[in-house]
Protein backbone atom coordinates (compact mmCIF):
# COMPACT_ATOMS: atom_id res chain seq x y z
CA UNK A 1 0.00 0.00 0.00
CA UNK A 2 1.43 3.36 -1.00
CA UNK A 3 1.95 6.28 1.35
CA UNK A 4 -0.80 8.16 -0.49
CA UNK A 5 -3.35 5.41 0.06
CA UNK A 6 -2.56 5.22 3.77
CA UNK A 7 -1.99 8.95 4.34
CA UNK A 8 -1.89 9.67 8.07
CA UNK A 9 -0.34 13.13 7.93
CA UNK A 10 -2.92 15.56 6.59
CA UNK A 11 -4.83 17.57 9.16
CA UNK A 12 -7.98 17.91 7.02
CA UNK A 13 -10.11 14.75 7.24
CA UNK A 14 -13.47 13.91 5.71
CA UNK A 15 -16.11 11.52 7.02
CA UNK A 16 -17.12 8.83 4.57
CA UNK A 17 -20.25 10.69 3.40
CA UNK A 18 -18.26 13.79 2.48
CA UNK A 19 -15.46 11.72 0.92
CA UNK A 20 -18.08 9.94 -1.15
CA UNK A 21 -19.59 13.19 -2.41
CA UNK A 22 -16.21 14.77 -3.21
CA UNK A 23 -14.76 11.72 -4.96
CA UNK A 24 -17.95 10.59 -6.68
CA UNK A 25 -17.53 7.08 -5.28
CA UNK A 26 -20.54 5.72 -3.37
CA UNK A 27 -19.99 5.12 0.34
CA UNK A 28 -20.83 1.43 0.08
CA UNK A 29 -18.30 1.15 -2.76
CA UNK A 30 -15.64 2.77 -0.60
CA UNK A 31 -16.28 0.20 2.11
CA UNK A 32 -16.18 -2.63 -0.41
CA UNK A 33 -12.93 -1.40 -1.95
CA UNK A 34 -11.35 -1.14 1.49
CA UNK A 35 -12.50 -4.63 2.47
CA UNK A 36 -11.73 -6.45 -0.77
CA UNK A 37 -8.79 -4.52 -2.21
CA UNK A 38 -7.33 -2.46 0.66
CA UNK A 39 -7.52 0.39 -1.84
CA UNK A 40 -7.19 3.04 0.89
CA UNK A 41 -6.65 2.90 4.64
CA UNK A 42 -8.59 5.79 6.20
CA UNK A 43 -7.81 6.76 9.74
CA UNK A 44 -10.39 5.86 12.37
CA UNK A 45 -11.92 7.75 15.25
CA UNK A 46 -12.22 6.11 18.64
CA UNK A 47 -15.73 5.05 17.69
CA UNK A 48 -14.45 3.46 14.46
CA UNK A 49 -15.67 6.13 12.05
CA UNK A 50 -13.64 6.39 8.85
CA UNK A 51 -11.80 9.65 8.08
CA UNK A 52 -10.31 10.28 4.63
CA UNK A 53 -7.57 12.79 3.81
CA UNK A 54 -7.59 15.29 0.93
CA UNK A 55 -4.98 13.21 -0.90
CA UNK A 56 -7.04 10.05 -0.52
CA UNK A 57 -10.14 11.78 -1.86
CA UNK A 58 -8.20 12.97 -4.92
CA UNK A 59 -6.83 9.45 -5.38
CA UNK A 60 -10.33 7.95 -5.22
CA UNK A 61 -11.58 10.50 -7.75
CA UNK A 62 -8.80 9.47 -10.14
CA UNK A 63 -9.76 5.83 -9.75
CA UNK A 64 -13.37 6.67 -10.54
CA UNK A 65 -12.29 8.53 -13.68
CA UNK A 66 -10.39 5.48 -14.92
CA UNK A 67 -13.21 3.10 -14.04
CA UNK A 68 -15.66 5.30 -15.96
CA UNK A 69 -13.25 5.02 -18.89
CA UNK A 70 -13.70 1.22 -18.85
CA UNK A 71 -11.00 -0.12 -16.52
CA UNK A 72 -11.69 -2.49 -13.63
CA UNK A 73 -10.76 -1.74 -10.05
CA UNK A 74 -8.74 -4.96 -10.07
CA UNK A 75 -6.62 -3.46 -12.87
CA UNK A 76 -5.77 -0.43 -10.74
CA UNK A 77 -5.40 -1.64 -7.17
CA UNK A 78 -1.76 -2.76 -7.43
CA UNK A 79 -0.52 0.13 -9.58
CA UNK A 80 2.13 2.44 -8.19
CA UNK A 81 1.44 6.15 -8.35
CA UNK A 82 3.67 6.46 -11.44
CA UNK A 83 1.93 3.55 -13.16
CA UNK A 84 -1.48 4.96 -12.26
CA UNK A 85 -0.51 8.30 -13.78
CA UNK A 86 0.79 6.62 -16.94
CA UNK A 87 -2.45 4.65 -17.25
CA UNK A 88 -4.48 7.81 -16.79
CA UNK A 89 -2.47 9.63 -19.45
CA UNK A 90 -3.03 6.80 -21.92
CA UNK A 91 -6.74 6.56 -21.23
CA UNK A 92 -7.27 10.30 -21.49
CA UNK A 93 -5.28 10.48 -24.72
CA UNK A 94 -7.33 7.62 -26.19
CA UNK A 95 -10.46 9.53 -25.20
CA UNK A 96 -9.31 12.55 -27.19
CA UNK A 97 -8.18 14.58 -24.16
CA UNK A 98 -4.69 15.57 -25.33
CA UNK A 99 -1.77 16.95 -23.44
CA UNK A 100 0.34 19.82 -24.60
CA UNK A 101 4.04 19.25 -24.54
CA UNK A 102 6.06 21.89 -22.72
CA UNK A 103 9.85 21.49 -22.67
CA UNK A 104 11.42 20.69 -19.32
CA UNK A 105 12.70 23.97 -17.88
CA UNK A 106 16.38 24.50 -17.32
CA UNK A 107 17.04 25.74 -13.79
CA UNK A 108 19.83 27.69 -12.14
CA UNK A 109 20.03 27.43 -8.35
CA UNK A 110 21.69 30.25 -6.40
CA UNK A 111 22.32 30.23 -2.67
CA UNK A 112 24.09 28.13 -0.07
CA UNK A 113 20.95 26.77 1.59
CA UNK A 114 19.03 25.95 -1.57
CA UNK A 115 22.20 24.60 -3.16
CA UNK A 116 22.63 22.09 -0.37
CA UNK A 117 18.91 21.30 -0.54
CA UNK A 118 19.18 20.45 -4.23
CA UNK A 119 22.24 18.28 -3.66
CA UNK A 120 20.34 16.29 -1.04
CA UNK A 121 17.00 16.04 -2.83
CA UNK A 122 17.90 16.25 -6.50
CA UNK A 123 16.36 12.83 -7.16
CA UNK A 124 12.98 14.27 -6.16
CA UNK A 125 13.32 17.16 -8.60
CA UNK A 126 13.59 14.98 -11.68
CA UNK A 127 11.13 17.04 -13.71
CA UNK A 128 13.49 20.01 -13.55
CA UNK A 129 16.68 20.22 -15.55
CA UNK A 130 18.99 21.66 -12.89
CA UNK A 131 22.03 22.79 -14.83
CA UNK A 132 23.87 25.14 -12.47
CA UNK A 133 24.13 25.21 -8.70
CA UNK A 134 25.88 28.28 -7.32
CA UNK A 135 26.50 28.69 -3.61
CA UNK A 136 26.76 32.47 -3.72
CA UNK A 137 25.39 35.33 -5.80
CA UNK A 138 28.52 37.43 -6.14
CA UNK A 139 29.11 39.21 -9.43
CA UNK A 140 32.23 37.11 -9.96
CA UNK A 141 30.28 33.86 -9.61
CA UNK A 142 27.50 35.03 -11.93
CA UNK A 143 29.83 36.26 -14.66
CA UNK A 144 29.62 34.18 -17.81
CA UNK A 145 27.06 31.63 -16.59
CA UNK A 146 24.72 30.02 -19.09
CA UNK A 147 21.23 31.43 -19.61
CA UNK A 148 18.43 29.51 -17.96
CA UNK A 149 14.63 29.29 -17.94
CA UNK A 150 14.03 29.42 -14.19
CA UNK A 151 15.94 30.73 -11.20
CA UNK A 152 15.60 29.25 -7.70
CA UNK A 153 17.35 31.31 -5.04
CA UNK A 154 17.34 31.64 -1.28
CA UNK A 155 16.92 34.87 0.61
CA UNK A 156 16.95 33.77 4.23
CA UNK A 157 15.90 37.17 5.55
CA UNK A 158 13.74 39.12 3.12
CA UNK A 159 14.35 42.87 3.41
CA UNK A 160 13.43 45.92 1.35
CA UNK A 161 16.61 45.25 -0.67
CA UNK A 162 15.48 41.77 -1.72
CA UNK A 163 13.36 42.78 -4.77
CA UNK A 164 16.34 44.56 -6.32
CA UNK A 165 18.57 41.58 -5.52
CA UNK A 166 16.17 39.20 -7.24
CA UNK A 167 15.95 41.49 -10.27
CA UNK A 168 19.75 41.43 -10.46
CA UNK A 169 19.79 37.62 -10.35
CA UNK A 170 17.11 37.41 -13.03
CA UNK A 171 19.12 39.68 -15.28
CA UNK A 172 22.39 37.81 -14.63
CA UNK A 173 20.92 34.36 -15.30
CA UNK A 174 18.61 35.37 -18.13
CA UNK A 175 15.82 33.53 -16.32
CA UNK A 176 12.23 34.23 -17.27
CA UNK A 177 10.98 33.65 -13.73
CA UNK A 178 12.23 33.03 -10.20
CA UNK A 179 11.28 31.20 -7.04
CA UNK A 180 12.52 32.87 -3.86
CA UNK A 181 12.86 30.63 -0.81
CA UNK A 182 12.91 32.51 2.47
CA UNK A 183 12.65 32.03 6.23
CA UNK A 184 11.72 35.45 7.56
CA UNK A 185 10.38 38.58 5.94
CA UNK A 186 7.90 41.42 6.18
CA UNK A 187 4.59 40.78 4.49
CA UNK A 188 4.72 43.98 2.43
CA UNK A 189 8.11 43.00 0.98
CA UNK A 190 6.86 39.52 0.13
CA UNK A 191 3.83 41.08 -1.55
CA UNK A 192 6.14 43.32 -3.54
CA UNK A 193 8.21 40.32 -4.59
CA UNK A 194 5.25 38.31 -5.84
CA UNK A 195 4.49 38.92 -9.49
CA UNK A 196 3.82 37.06 -12.71
CA UNK A 197 7.56 36.30 -12.78
CA UNK A 198 8.34 35.67 -9.11
CA UNK A 199 6.90 33.16 -6.64
CA UNK A 200 7.90 32.86 -3.00
CA UNK A 201 7.91 29.89 -0.63
CA UNK A 202 8.96 29.61 2.97
CA UNK A 203 11.76 27.25 3.95
CA UNK A 204 11.87 24.41 4.71
CA UNK A 205 9.98 23.28 1.64
CA UNK A 206 9.14 19.76 0.52
CA UNK A 207 10.97 18.81 -2.71
CA UNK A 208 7.74 17.69 -4.38
CA UNK A 209 6.09 21.00 -3.51
CA UNK A 210 9.07 22.93 -4.87
CA UNK A 211 8.96 20.96 -8.11
CA UNK A 212 5.22 21.57 -8.52
CA UNK A 213 5.72 25.27 -7.85
CA UNK A 214 8.55 25.46 -10.39
CA UNK A 215 6.61 23.62 -13.07
CA UNK A 216 3.52 25.70 -12.41
CA UNK A 217 5.51 28.92 -12.72
CA UNK A 218 7.14 27.64 -15.90
CA UNK A 219 3.72 26.81 -17.29
CA UNK A 220 2.62 30.39 -16.64
CA UNK A 221 5.66 32.09 -18.19
CA UNK A 222 6.04 29.65 -21.09
CA UNK A 223 2.34 30.07 -21.83
CA UNK A 224 0.26 28.73 -24.64
CA UNK A 225 0.16 30.27 -28.12
CA UNK A 226 -2.01 33.36 -27.90
CA UNK A 227 -3.63 35.83 -30.22
CA UNK A 228 -4.67 39.36 -29.46
CA UNK A 229 -8.06 39.51 -27.81
CA UNK A 230 -10.58 41.04 -30.18
CA UNK A 231 -8.03 41.60 -32.94
CA UNK A 232 -9.60 42.54 -36.26
CA UNK A 233 -6.61 41.21 -38.14
CA UNK A 234 -6.85 37.96 -40.04
CA UNK A 235 -5.32 36.00 -37.19
CA UNK A 236 -5.10 32.23 -37.28
CA UNK A 237 -5.76 30.85 -33.83
CA UNK A 238 -4.29 27.50 -32.77
CA UNK A 239 -6.80 24.70 -33.21
CA UNK A 240 -8.95 23.58 -30.31
CA UNK A 241 -7.03 21.45 -27.85
CA UNK A 242 -9.98 19.30 -26.80
CA UNK A 243 -12.49 17.45 -28.92
CA UNK A 244 -16.19 17.86 -28.29
CA UNK A 245 -16.33 14.23 -27.16
CA UNK A 246 -13.60 14.81 -24.59
CA UNK A 247 -15.36 17.93 -23.30
CA UNK A 248 -18.64 16.04 -23.00
CA UNK A 249 -16.81 13.42 -20.96
CA UNK A 250 -15.39 16.06 -18.61
CA UNK A 251 -18.81 17.69 -18.36
CA UNK A 252 -20.24 14.43 -17.07
CA UNK A 253 -17.43 13.52 -14.67
CA UNK A 254 -18.02 13.61 -10.94
CA UNK A 255 -15.96 16.37 -9.37
CA UNK A 256 -13.67 15.98 -6.36
CA UNK A 257 -13.86 19.72 -5.81
CA UNK A 258 -16.46 21.37 -3.60
CA UNK A 259 -18.13 22.72 -6.71
CA UNK A 260 -18.65 21.63 -10.30
CA UNK A 261 -16.41 24.22 -11.96
CA UNK A 262 -14.59 21.72 -14.22
CA UNK A 263 -17.96 20.58 -15.56
CA UNK A 264 -19.06 24.18 -16.11
CA UNK A 265 -15.80 25.07 -17.87
CA UNK A 266 -16.25 22.12 -20.23
CA UNK A 267 -19.80 23.27 -21.00
CA UNK A 268 -18.60 26.82 -21.63
CA UNK A 269 -15.83 25.57 -23.91
CA UNK A 270 -18.31 23.65 -26.04
CA UNK A 271 -20.48 26.77 -26.36
CA UNK A 272 -17.51 29.02 -27.22
CA UNK A 273 -16.21 26.52 -29.77
CA UNK A 274 -19.64 26.41 -31.41
CA UNK A 275 -19.76 30.20 -31.58
CA UNK A 276 -16.23 30.32 -33.00
CA UNK A 277 -17.28 27.92 -35.77
CA UNK A 278 -20.49 29.87 -36.36
CA UNK A 279 -18.59 33.15 -36.68
CA UNK A 280 -16.18 31.58 -39.17
CA UNK A 281 -19.16 30.45 -41.27
CA UNK A 282 -20.73 33.92 -41.18
CA UNK A 283 -17.39 35.44 -42.15
CA UNK A 284 -17.51 33.50 -45.42
CA UNK A 285 -21.22 33.60 -46.12
CA UNK A 286 -21.76 37.30 -45.36
CA UNK A 287 -18.95 39.20 -47.14
CA UNK A 288 -20.46 42.57 -46.31
CA UNK A 289 -19.95 41.91 -42.59
CA UNK A 290 -16.76 39.88 -42.91
CA UNK A 291 -14.67 42.23 -40.76
CA UNK A 292 -17.15 42.13 -37.88
CA UNK A 293 -17.46 38.34 -38.01
CA UNK A 294 -13.68 37.99 -38.23
CA UNK A 295 -13.48 40.12 -35.07
CA UNK A 296 -16.01 37.84 -33.37
CA UNK A 297 -14.21 34.69 -34.51
CA UNK A 298 -10.86 35.88 -33.17
CA UNK A 299 -12.47 37.03 -29.92
CA UNK A 300 -14.15 33.64 -29.52
CA UNK A 301 -10.84 31.91 -30.20
CA UNK A 302 -9.13 34.04 -27.54
CA UNK A 303 -11.84 33.16 -25.03
CA UNK A 304 -11.60 29.51 -26.01
CA UNK A 305 -7.86 29.42 -25.32
CA UNK A 306 -8.34 31.11 -21.94
CA UNK A 307 -10.95 28.53 -20.97
CA UNK A 308 -8.69 25.73 -22.25
CA UNK A 309 -5.97 26.95 -19.89
CA UNK A 310 -8.56 27.15 -17.11
CA UNK A 311 -9.61 23.56 -17.76
CA UNK A 312 -6.01 22.37 -17.58
CA UNK A 313 -5.56 24.18 -14.26
CA UNK A 314 -8.74 22.72 -12.80
CA UNK A 315 -7.86 19.27 -14.09
CA UNK A 316 -4.62 19.53 -12.12
CA UNK A 317 -6.62 20.40 -9.02
CA UNK A 318 -8.85 17.40 -9.68
CA UNK A 319 -5.86 15.06 -9.95
CA UNK A 320 -6.32 14.48 -13.70
CA UNK A 321 -2.74 14.72 -14.99
CA UNK A 322 -3.15 16.31 -18.42
CA UNK A 323 0.55 16.95 -18.08
CA UNK A 324 2.85 16.76 -15.10
CA UNK A 325 4.10 21.17 -13.11
CA UNK A 326 4.23 19.69 -10.25
CA UNK A 327 1.45 20.54 -10.31
CA UNK A 328 0.13 23.20 -12.95
Query: Globular, elongated, flat, extended or rod-shaped: what is the shape?
Result: flat
Q: Round the mean pLDDT to the nearest integer and report it.
A: 76
Radius of gyration: 23 Å
What strand order characterises the main sheet? Answer: 5-4-6-7-8
Low-pLDDT parts are 97-101, 224-234, 321-328
Q: What separation lies between the terminal Cα atoms? A: 27 Å
Order of helices and strands: EHHEEHHHEHEHEHEHEHHHH
Q: Percent range for helical residues?
A: 40-55%
Structural class: alpha/beta
Oligomeric description of these chains: single chain
How many strand elements?
Answer: 8
Q: Sheet bearing the most strands, described?
A: 5 strands, parallel
Q: How large is the share of residues in beta strands?
A: 5-15%
- The DSSP helix count reads 13
Structure description:
This protein is α/β, with parallel strands linked by helices and 328 residues long. Helices cover 50% and strands 13% of the residues. Helix 8 (162-173) links the parallel strand 6 and strand 7. Helix 1 (16-23) packs across helix 3 (54-68), helix 11 packs antiparallel against helix 12 (261-285) and helix 12 packs antiparallel against helix 13 (290-318). The protein is flat. The two termini are 27 Å apart.
Chart the SSEs and their pairings.
Elements: E1 13-15, H1 16-23, H2 27-37, E2 43-44, E3 50-53, H3 54-68, H4 73-76, H5 81-94, E4 106-110, H6 112-121, E5 129-134, H7 139-142, E6 150-158, H8 162-173, E7 177-185, H9 187-193, E8 198-202, H10 207-222, H11 244-252, H12 261-285, H13 290-318
Helix pairs in contact: 1-3, 11-12, 12-13
Amino acid sequence: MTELRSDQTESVKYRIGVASRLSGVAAHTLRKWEERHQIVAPTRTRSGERLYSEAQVRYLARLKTLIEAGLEISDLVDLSEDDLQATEQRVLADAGFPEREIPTPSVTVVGRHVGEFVRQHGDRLSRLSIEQVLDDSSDQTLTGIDATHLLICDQVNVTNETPASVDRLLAATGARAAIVLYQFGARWVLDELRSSRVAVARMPVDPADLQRLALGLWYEVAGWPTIVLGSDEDADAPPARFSEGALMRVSNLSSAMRCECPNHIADLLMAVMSFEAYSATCEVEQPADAAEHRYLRVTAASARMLFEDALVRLARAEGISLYDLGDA
